[in-house]
Amino acid sequence: MSGLLSWLKSNIVIVLLAILTVVPLPVAWYFSSGMNKELRDERQSEAQKALRDVTSAKVTYSLPPLSQTEEPIEINTPPNAVTTEFFKAEREKRESIVARVKDRAVEFNSKNRGVLLDGLFPEPSSGPSGQILRPQFAQMVVATGGDDFESAYDKLFDRLRIRTPVDSELLREQLAARKASLMSQLAPGTPESEMDEATRDQIKQQLVEQRLGAYETHARDTSFYADESILPQSVPRTVSPVDPSMTACFSWQADYWLIDDILTALAAANDEFDTQGVGGNVLDGVVKRVESITFEPLVTASATQTSANDQYEMPLSGDDIRRQARRERDAREGRGLPGAQAAGFVAAGTFTGRGDEPSDLYDVRTVKVSLIASYEKLPALINSISSYNFMTVLDADIYSVDQWQQIENGFYAGSDFTVRVELEIETLWLRSWTKQFMPADVRDQLGIEPDQPIDSPA
Strand 59-63 and strand 162-163: pairing? Predict the structure, then answer.
């Protein structure tokens, strides 16, 4: 025993190291066993919770409606690969349909038209070529170019076969020549005062027939009667002596689009009665004559501003003064156009509801058109206007007209019973295609955010 103690004393370091090596093993096993159990319980709890979350989770699958009357399709169910794939495919189909409808709507509204002068909108280039575009455009949009050049409205009237009545002076000369020929043929050398009653009646009858024949021939080659005097006051009558602002240029462009749509819709209404395949005409169509077109400008502030200190005003013609008097009369009688509203919008209260709240998608413009039309064919006129573009007839007032006075003034309309019709038409203009041409000032007036992206042309 003493020998063991002596050995232990002499080898104390070895003994201590042996103890430190052996003792931690059971201790470590004890503690590690406890920690492993705790870790396993924690992980198992997490796994069970995750399993419960998965088994109890639900996903809402939905499909957007394609129309206002369709209810949204929604189901709330646990996620499923087959269901997910089905709804994904159906959503893609619906989005494709919506995209096609949008493209068709833009095409229908724009008629694939552009601007009258390329390179001008929304801003011309700063070089010499850009500087001549505004005065060039101002010349294009005058009501009539005269003998020197054709304005855009001259070309529009020619394209639609919109003409004035027979030239009364020319017809008078033709009738006078015809009368002299008949007198020489039927009673040579006899003064008219000495002719017998039968001869005078015969000459009178032939002159009436020639006059009506001239009227009829001209009417069959005319879609309907009108001239530049029907255009609203916003259409310039003379070329501006100074360069117009871009706001003025765009206002004229927007007015041209609107007038083009209205006149083309009226011509299309007459085309529905075409039996010869050459286009509608005064005798067979519903529209006989357009007397006036009036509307409020799309943008008003600085519409004629050329610079900070330079403005111009268009001179008023006799027709402008008469239209202004008519607008004042309508305002007194409560029949005028809506007053100055937010630019691009009409007053609230129309049955379409489009003017109730401003929209970021479109601008609404209301037009008043006064015309002479066939009473029996008026339903065709209303239908044609509504089907030509996004137009809605809001109101139609009908008045009697003096048929013989119309004929005396050269507005021969055939055998139809005619009436005066004052239409109020609401038109819609999608910004998907119009805003790409809008200058910055126009966008500001219409409330279009400067950073709003411009859609590509349809």
Answer: unpaired
